[in-house]
Amino acid sequence: MVQPHFIDLANAPERSDEDLYKEFVETKERDLMAQIFRKHMTLVFGVCMKYVGEKHGAQDSAMEVFERLLTLEINTEIKNFRAYLYVLTKNYCLMKKRGEKVIHIEISDRDMEIATEVHPIDQADKKEKALKKCLDQLRDMQKACVEKFYLSKKSYLEIAAELKLNLNSVKSNIQNGKRNLKICIEGSQ
Amino acid sequence: MKHDSEILKQIKSYFMRRKSADEAHAFEKKAEKDAFLYEAMEGFEGMITSDIQQAMDELDDRLDSQSNRFLFTYSWKIAARIAAVLTVGLSLYFTVFNSSSNENAVSSNDDEIYEPRNGETQFDTLGTYAFQYQEQIESTDSSSQIDDLDNTYALNDESPIATPMPQAEQNAMATNEPRLKEESTSSNNWEEESVSDENAIALNEGDASAAEVLEKSVMETNSADQYLEQVSGVMSEKSEMKKSAPMVPVKAKEKGLVASPKDGMPAYQSYLKKNLNTSEGMPTGAVILSFEIDRNGKPKKIVIVKSLCTACDAEAIRVLENGPAWAAEDKNTKGTVAVQFP
Fold it and tell me: Given the DSSP bridges, would you call strands B326-327 and B299-306 parallel, antiparallel or unpaired?
């Protein structure tokens, strides 16, 4: 006898995005995609907020991203769904912001690499020497922010208070310091 | 419907500065590694946390209505499947029944056993399904009933609305119920959080309805309290390390709300002066807290009305929680205190 399908659904452990996506490709059932999307909806909305800058517009964009997911080409292979969704959301919002008509979004492997990038300091043991040298070449504020954040494990607020900076310049110092570090380390190899 | 997810919880708690400095750093580090989260956090900056929750709830609803069309057809599919299974089972049963009861009397009329037509009274008790299937298919040459039903099943799958099946539909709905219950319990926490959020905003704006909003939160459970206790637990460990920090004058003031310290304001000020631990990094300003008072005059359900910094907020909550009792006229009394940092 055929077991009713929904009994399995209720007791099933949480399935991975990629697993759900595979089933979505086969069955084209919207609910599967909605399930995946709901998991990441907070972040999608946040990214839309960043680029759209206004709540209702950001909500619309988030839903448009969902629509786009539903109409993905059948052959689209997605290895890391979360990274894919991030790049899709970001590119969609950027193109919409520029006033371009969003027809097709190319997502290259390089984009995905950036999305899952690991910070250079996290591989510190391998490249410790280069890192130390590069850290010294950073500008004072960038160096101070990066050191306090990664080495002294201080939060943004604590760093802001200690260096008498505002929160945003702490963040941009860390970001720029990180980028400069990466360029420097890659250059020295 | 309330949107609830682990990441939303974390983001809200971060922006409400409910995390200790260490937790905040851990979360920030996670975001530094994860570009998706980092950009989302940039997007949420400048949004009020209750606004984030509201926006997410709305999105959740929109997502539901987007996939509702699917749910509708899905339940029909389930119904169709159940009906098909039932029909197969019942027709098999009747086939067997027929063949056993008619074995002696009717041995020539094999066709009638496998394909019962209108004349067969047993099929009336099956309800209308079987007949409708047969009318739909009009199969004249099929040798077995089961093959027929497989066809109906396939047909039905594509055009499920053709045949109404109330019983099967009920079944499908019944299985949805437990899911709904789960959702409602998991959303409880959020209601509370957003209520305290509302408190914060209302008081910030000096709104006249602030008292009303606060009153609402009395009804809520006390998990916010537990959270704050945790935070203050972490902080008191930290503040022991900071004992060397210089003592600075601290000012506390009443804000026109009913509660006042039991031993009077001057005594409370000197308590704050004595017990507030500050570190060099802390910015200048005041943390404003609002709270309710329990039977023993101890502050409970503390809400940060105006935040200063993560460490400051937690320290202010710690002193308030561990401080002397407040005088309360009745159980609905509220208090507000401003803890001044150097």
Answer: unpaired
List, by residue range, all CATH 1.10.10.10 domains of chain A.
120-188
N-to-C CA span, chain B: 44
| B15 pLDDT more than 70 | yes
- Which chain B residue is nearest to residue A52, measuring alpha carbons? B43
In terms of C-beta distances under 8 Å and separation of at least 24 residues, what long-range contacts does B93-97 make, across chains too?
B94/B122, B94/B123, B94/B126, B95/B145, B97/B122
B330, with CB counted inside 10 A (0-12, 13-18, 19+), is: exposed
Answer for the pair B11, B39: CB distance below 8 angstroms, yes or no.
no
Does A114 contact B35 at a Cβ distance shorter than 8 Å?
A: yes
The answer to whether the complex's ipTM is over 0.90 is no
Q: Which two tokens stand for residue A124?
A: 């510190």
Burial class (CB in 10 A: 0-12, 13-18, 19+), B99: middle
Are A155 and B82 in contact (CB < 8 Å)? no
* B300 and B292 Cβ atoms separated by less than 8 Å: yes
Q: How far apart are CA B311 and CA B17, in angstroms?
A: 9
Mean pLDDT, rounded, for B245-260: 46
Amino acid in the structure at residue B63: L
How long, in residues, is chain A?
Answer: 189
CB B35 to CB A115 under 8 A?
A: yes
Asked whether the beta carbons of residue A45 and residue B56 sit closer than 8 angstroms, the reply is yes
The amino acid present at B167, given as its one-letter code, is: Q
Nearest residue to A154 via CA among B202, B281, B84, B70? B281
- Asked if B44 contacts B7 with a C-beta cutoff of 8 angstroms, the reply is no
Which chain B residues are closer than 8 Å to A82 by Cβ? Answer: 36
Q: Which residue of B has its CA nearest to A155?
A: B25
Q: Which residues of A touch B92 (CB under 8 A)?
A: none
CATH topology assigned to domain A120-188: Arc Repressor Mutant, subunit A (1.10.10)
Residue B23 has what pLDDT? 87
Beta bridge partners of A127: none
**A-chain residues within 8 Å CB-CB of B149?**
none
Q: From residue B294, give the alpha-carbon distance in Å to each of B258, B259, B287, B298, B299.
A: 14, 11, 22, 5, 6
Could you read off the pLDDT tens digit of each residue along chain A, which spans 189 residues?
A: 544 444 454 445 677 888 888 888 888 888 888 888 988 999 999 999 999 888 899 999 999 999 888 887 766 778 888 888 999 999 888 888 887 665 666 666 666 665 555 555 555 555 677 788 888 888 888 988 988 888 888 889 888 888 888 888 899 999 999 888 888 888 776
Nearest to A155 among B11, B28, B35 (CB): B28
